[in-house]
Amino acid sequence: MSSPSSALTREATVAPSGFNRWLVPPAAIAVHMCIGQVYGFSVFNKPLTLALGTDITKVQFAYQIALMMLGLSAAFFGKWVERSGPRKTMLASWLFFCGGLIISSLAVRLQSLPLLLFGYGIVGGIGLGLGYISPVSTLVKWFPDRPGMATGMAIMGFGGGALIGSPLAQELMKHFAKEGSTGAGESLLVMAAVYSFFMLFGAALVRVPAPDWHPEGWVPKAATQAITGASVAVDTAWKTPQFWLLWIVLCMNVSAGIGVLGRAADMCQDMFGVSAAIGAGFTGLLSIFNMGGRFAWSSVSDFTGRKAVYSIYFILGAALYAVLPYAQQTQNKTLFVACTALIISMYGGGFATIPAYLRDLFGSYQVGAIHGRLITAWSVAAVIGPGLINSLFTSRVSTGIPKAEAYNGTFYLMCALLGIGLVANLLVRPVSERHHIKQP
Amino acid sequence: MKLLLSWLLVALPLGWGVTQSVKKATPLFTSQPAQAAAATPPPSPGLVAPTPVKPQ
Fold first, then answer.
1. SS in 3 state form for A282-295?
2. What are the 10-residue block averages of pLDDT along chain A, 440 residues in total?
3. ipTM of the assembly?
């Protein structure tokens, strides 16, 4: 009889003959839609500030640490994830992520900010990184014919996590709130239980294909200029110019998207004089496009090729950003909403298409680990994107430019960032054969 | 059956999340601007329409 730990090994998760590969995407989505809760952390800002008797910036620090740890853990544990397989990684992700929620709940009970930063930020953040990269290489191997669509489905789940996490937390806090309590502690505990169910479901369902498996009737295409048939190890990959060009591509795409997403509600109110409720509605709408774009654009990339689809993100994105000042000047709300929704769909698409781009260049051998290292671009973008935008906006307002018009400068800055991304994308060439490994 | 249940298990929460967001976004298309929110000096050249003025 096999021990419980042996059931977690990569070998134990090899799918039996006849296994339906369409069972793997729901496993991946289940994990991603849980860890995507991090995007909805802001609903806890006020309740945690009250519960811990601190100020909001210190509470928000937990979110920032979590995102930083996401990038770091994905980068550091990438090779372990490839070695261990998706089931063990998903279980580790569950332990850290849900453990982080439980520690955060304890932090509320003990009124300890350091415990919250440790629990949600560090412990939970490690769970985010492990969970984010856990299904990537498995999906790429199951869907060699449609890698963009496959990874897009999982990463769409991450975008959807915010849509679930925010209202779920609000409903729970409404239920648990009582005299002298915001209900945040109890809500975090219940969320840990709910997310445990879905993450364990994902871990139980996931399988890796047998080494010689391929989809029925599918014949591997000969390697082309754009898609390699060879493999590159992670330790070699990150020393190639292609890795760093893609790093810039992702960083610029994310920085530009955060330009709208980070200030969406304020922007809508300042530029069009709408109420706070409508501003919040605008943010909700963008979240839907963020989620949908992940699946739609990455699926499109299977037909157009990765380089072409990123060129669309950058050229169309810059053109749409350039239209936004006109929408403000003419007070055309519909045009503004349509442009920003499309921009955000491409922001999501950029996240979802990158694993397939990596697979095209470096092969599927250690694509999860390579993806893990590339995610550091996201962490950097999460800092520089809002930093650039906020400082430019503030400086323009301080020179007397009305708020409604002050955003226009930031839109042109976004165009410039997208221009840098476009140049990096156009410079991407196939990886030199000297980096290929002989027998993965 | 296993395939259907697996997809339902992830589709239901995602669908709920999308529904909640759509509900939240509805006022964007149904409400009129509540109040002017942007402070604007006299329109600068090139402005097609002046931006609303926010009380200071």
1. HHHHHHHHHHHHHH
2. 67 87 95 91 88 86 88 89 91 97 96 95 95 88 90 90 89 90 93 97 93 80 64 89 95 86 80 82 87 94 94 96 92 91 94 92 88 89 80 86 86 93 95 74
3. 0.84
CB A117 within 8 A of CB A65: yes
Tokens linked to A7:
């059931």
Closest CA to A259 of A404, A382, A395: A382
pLDDT recorded at residue B54? 36
| Residues β-bridged to residue A437 | A231
Nearest to A194 by CA among A98, A87, A63: A98
Residue A79 CA: distances (Å) to CA of A1, A12, A168, A233, A235: 29, 19, 34, 10, 9
CA A225, CA A360: separation in Å to the nearest integer? 10
Of A365, A364, A356, A360, nearest to A227 (Cα)? A360
User: Which CA distances in Å does A174 have to A56, A168, A187?
Assistant: 20, 10, 9
Q: Which positions in chain A have a beta carbon within 8 angstroms of at least one beta carbon in chain B?
A: 20, 22-23, 26-27, 29-30, 33, 157, 160, 162-164, 166-167, 198, 201, 205, 269-275, 277-278, 280-282, 284-285, 287-288, 291, 328-331, 337, 400, 402-405
Q: Measured between CB atoms, which of B6, B20, B48 is closest to A205? A: B6
Q: Which residues, listed in sequence order, are joined to residue A14 by a DSSP beta bridge?
A: A208
Structure-token pair, residue A197: 């169910």
Category of B43 on φ-ψ map: left (φ > 0), alpha (ψ -120 to 50) or beta? beta
Q: Which of B7, B17, B34 is facing A274, going by the closest CB pair?
A: B34
Residue A109: other Cβ atoms inside 10 A: 12
pTM of the complete model: 0.85
A232: left (phi over 0), alpha (psi -120 to 50) or beta: beta
